[in-house]
Design goal:
The chain is α+β, with helices and mostly antiparallel strands. It has 3 helices and 8 strands; from the N terminus they run βαβββαββαββ. The chain has a single domain, classed as Aldehyde Oxidoreductase, domain 3 (Alpha-Beta Complex), CATH 3.90.1170. α2 runs antiparallel to α3.
């Protein structure tokens, strides 16, 4: 049985460890699941032109982004043998060390979970209109470029 209902993707601010733990805990009661794979995107303290990033301020064309997230979810369910799939992305300021992207997939077997999670993260990075301003310790910023 696949869980492909629509849910809100965006969370304002960082995604908390408690939120992540609660999501994992809720799935322990689903005994048809044999594997989970989780991707956690964390804000790094990159140094760009001698300046250190302290925060990323995420923004988005929310309606378009929600549509793209939904399309990625539907495509993932069609492409991989998944039981559950959840995607959460931050909006607003997220400090270094905090979580900004949480992808959680479940399946009967591990291969589908591993393959789907990687595919989903790459699709998000390439196709979802979420933008980040990397804010330095001096409060100046540059727009973040997605890398592999």
């Amino acid at each position: 049985m696949k869980e492909n209902k629509k849910h809100d993707v965006f969370i304002h601010g960082p995604i908390s460890p408690v939120f992540i733990a609660d999501a994992i805990n809720k799935h322990s009661k689903k005994t048809n699941i044999g594997a989970h794979d989780i991707f956690l995107g964390q804000v790094r303290n990159d140094v760009i032109d001698g300046k250190t990033v302290q925060t990323i301020d995420y923004s988005s064309y929310e309606e378009m982004a929600e549509k793209k997230f939904y399309e990625i979810r539907e495509d993932a369910f069609n492409k991989f043998d998944l039981t559950c799939l959840h995607i959460y992305h931050s909006l607003g300021r997220v400090k270094i060390g905090e979580i900004c992207l949480f992808v959680f997939v479940s399946s009967v077997h591990r291969k589908a979970a591993f393959d789907a999670c990687r595919w989903i993260v790459e699709e998000i990075k390439m196709n979802v209109p979420v933008f980040g301003r990397e804010i330095f310790t001096d409060e100046t910023y540059v727009w973040k470029e997605n890398t592999k």
